[in-house]
Design brief:
single chain; alpha/beta; 17% strand; 4-stranded antiparallel beta sheet; 22 strands; 2 domains; 469 residues; globular; 23% helix; 11 helices; 10-stranded mixed beta sheet; Arylsulfatase, C-terminal domain; Alkaline Phosphatase, subunit A
Amino acid sequence: MKRHFLIALILSAVSPVVGSAAKPNVLVIVADDLGYGDIGAHGGSEVPTPHLDALAASGIRCTNAYVSAPYCSPSRAGFLTGKAQTRFGHEFNPHVGDEKTLGLPLDQRTIADVLRDKGYATALIGKWHQGFSPAHHPQSRGFDAYFGFLVGGHNFILHKGAKPVFGSAHSHDMIYRGREVQDLAGYTTDLFTDEAMAFIDGQTEKPWFLYLAFNAVHTPLEVLEKHRARLPASVTDPKRIGYLSLLLGLDDAVGRLMAHLKETGRDKETLVFFFSDNGGAGREPFLAYNTGRNTPLRGDKGQVLEGGIRVPFFVSWPGRLPENATYDEPVTALDILPTSCAIAEADVPAGVEGVDLLPFLTGKTTTPPHAALYWRFGPQKAMREGRWKLVDARDFKTRTQSGWQLFDLGEDIGESRDLSADHPEIVQRMTGAWEAWNEGNVPPLWQGSPNEDPGSRPREAGARAKQKP
């Protein structure tokens, strides 16, 4: 695959600051259910996304970037640990089961644990979705500071004096500061951005790690009036109006935050990652349906087709990484932890499957970062090896499996031509490799909701009321 930047120029311009007295900061911005094709950098044009596009242009846009699951919580568990979440049973969203065991297993170290041990101030702002017992709370998992909500979804428009409501899949007016619920008015996207800037400004003695997890553009599709006038008149579907208004809010927030980094002189000392936790949810039968469009990819959130697992992924570090560049080899959100460890001079925890991306993004290493990538999500299975994608995906309408199909992503990004009959030897080899990888996985620790996690069986509902975590 071609590199869209000059290796010689990069090698002369890039000199990571590992070993310097002042360690770099790490900022990870995560969007929720963002459609691959809805942003300008990926060809979207229905509403402008100038700030997301500028973030992509300020560094490297990874064109073949993946998350480790097509669903919110397991995807985040993978990013937080640097491991496939199927290695430790976090296969589905933690909506049902025993609160004491429901969530990111307590024997797993997070990126926040690792960086805090190296002297970093750590914060999570926004969506957690890794369990809601006291032991699973963010401040029990390596984060010094926390401001956000604990479960999978939350309303955007907050009203002071509203009664907080907790559900294991969705909460309402239940934003925590630390372990205390706050009585707030405002718009979560703006509040999370304000809190992020305040956290950054408060760090004068230590390097910092900030995980900023927006709930935009996840449901509910609430429209803030200041965004409504910016929507094109041609959009009449109320759900699409809601989605695009949330996208405008997300883009504004990213612009404010990146401008703040630059204005305060922190941009050149901060490694920034941006990605979506999974693909857009573009189908009506889906509970989290948000009209997200994954063009030109096939499939959606909840599927191991490209539309469910291939995501926008930008890496920016002014002066340290090239600008206006693309990187075409497959990378994964699992790589964020070991990359952060490299600049923090931290040991990578045992079992981490991601790699330090910096040598690859700078051109110092020209081989692909990964020989292959693998997925398991309930009955769904997938593997990518070079240009080849082997996949057994779920059809949401019929609730049936496709069986193993083979696609050449180099020629067919939309997974429209199954080549399994033409290349049985490739199917056999890759199937064997997937089975060998799967031997290292464990059964899921809990089952997901049958309306959300394809192929999972129904279980008793989890807690519906919540006090302090």
